[in-house]
Design brief:
about 350 residues; 12 strands; alpha/beta; about 45% helix; elongated; about 15% strand; single chain
């Protein structure tokens, strides 16, 4: 009689250790590989959890930690979006004079592509990573957690104090623009968005919170589509909203490209902006101030984010503690003629 082969026990992962210690994957990884960079209480919790669970670091992660590199890997969602171009160009101005070369990968807002890029780039043993946002697949989170070198996250802030990041609250920015429209007398305010990445969804939640605060949130005034964002799509979204919700008196678009398309389409249709309809965007791209009417939008300091993130990463690579692990660069609502 053939004996059934005994199933090997599942390997304990760093995710298991992080859960047991009550911290993020990156914090657990840092506590085990760079304990001087975390608090004593966190280090003790993680070490205790690792010991109790019998966690053994993957050999590949150990070899990764031992090699030197002059490469910095960067993963961004898009290179056709000026927001990310401005950010990466500013980071490059900091890192290249310090002797580092950038490997830039574009995920096209796809989690599986983000994961593939991280796997490929970690094989090059980069000295540090710049990544956009915190939301990614479980496999990608495991890859980052096993990577013992510095990681700085761009565009968002974290609830975990040990995470290194430079950005601003997308939710607060979405709420601030919505409140501005409310304060200017608009009541039937729609939110239109495309390419529904995590930052867009956070802005949408900010919009909802502001509308709920005055008792005027109506899901029918939200138009969210996964289509790729463009000026042409902005024109189409204006058509869809006006057809479905003719009472709309203001539209907050999740980016300037969509808002600019809506302004072009409003002119074609003879819709007076802001007399009949207010239009607002997000990011304050260069064209926003030169439109007729000029576009009301949220100004984000993309170049500042790239510069500060690169400086923080450089300090971490050199073994220095950054002055702050999380930098909130804030945002500014710019009111122009379109609202």
């Amino acid at each position: 009689m053939t004996q059934r082969r005994r199933r090997a026990p599942e390997r304990v992962t760093l995710s298991d250790v992080a859960r047991a210690a009550g911290c993020s994957l990156m914090s657990a990884s840092r506590a085990l590989s760079q304990p001087a960079l975390v608090s004593d209480s966190l280090r003790e919790r993680v070490e205790k959890a690792a010991k109790e669970l019998g966690y053994v670091p993957h050999p590949a992660a150990r070899s990764l930690a031992s090699a030197r590199s002059n490469l910095v890997a960067v993963v961004i969602p898009s290179l056709s979006n000026a927001v990310f171009v401005d950010m990466i160009e500013a980071a490059q101005h900091v890192l290249m004079p310090a002797g580092f070369e950038l490997m830039i990968g574009v995920s096209h807002y796809r989690p599986e592509e983000d994961e593939r890029l991280l796997k490929a780039y970690l094989a090059h043993q980069p000295a540090g990573l710049l990544v956009t946002g915190f939301e990614r697949s479980e496999a990608a989170r495991e890859l980052l957690a096993s990577y013992s070198r510095p990681i700085v996250t761009l565009m968002e802030l974290s609830q975990t104090p040990d995470d290194c990041c430079v950005g601003f609250s997308q939710l607060d920015a979405g709420a601030a623009m919505t409140r501005t429209l409310i304060e200017r007398g608009y009541r039937h305010i729609a939110f239109a968005a495309a390419q529904l990445d995590p930052r867009t969804l956070q802005r949408a939640e900010g919009y909802r919170q502001a509308m709920r605060a005055i008792g005027r949130h109506d899901p029918a005034l939200e138009l969210l589509t996964p289509e790729l964002s463009s000026i042409a799509l902005g024109a189409e979204l204006l058509d869809r909203l006006i057809a479905r919700q003719p009472q709309v008196d203001a539209i907050f678009f999740n980016n300037d490209d969509l808002a600019l398309g809506a302004l072009f389409r409003a002119r074609q249709l003879g819709i007076e902006v802001p007399g009949r309809l207010a239009v607002a965007g997000f990011n304050d791209l260069p064209a926003a101030a030169w439109m007729h009417p000029s576009l009301t939008t949220v100004r984000t300091t993309r170049a500042q984010i790239g510069e500060l993130a690169a400086k923080m990463l450089l300090d971490l690579i050199r073994g220095k503690q950054p002055t702050a692990r999380q930098i909130d660069v804030g945002f500014e609502v710019i009111v122009r003629e379109s609202a």
